[in-house]
Design brief:
The two termini are 21 Å apart. Strands 4-3-5 form a three-stranded antiparallel beta sheet, with helices on one face. A hairpin with a 3-residue loop joins strand 3 (25-30) and strand 4. The chain is α+β, with helices and mostly antiparallel strands. It has one domain. It is globular, with a radius of gyration of 11 Å. The longest helix has 9 residues, at 40-48. It is built from one helix and five strands, in the order E-E-E-E-H-E.
């Protein structure tokens, strides 16, 4: 599964399927310092405060 986000250009990030119904995780660079693997439900909150998709 892929998570595609279009803001200014296009970012394609692989999403890992956790095996749960509706599951999946993605890598997010948190505060520009730490790569975190987050459940898809938590990604938008991190993007809203300046984190970005993908590893740092």
């Amino acid at each position: 599964m892929l998570l595609v986000l279009t803001i200014a250009g296009c970012v394609v990030v692989p999403v890992r399927n956790s095996g749960k119904a509706g599951g999946g995780t993605a890598l997010v660079c948190h505060k520009g310092k730490k790569t975190m693997e987050l459940p898809r439900e938590a990604i938008q909150a991190h993007l809203n405060h300046g984190d970005y998709l993908g590893p740092c």
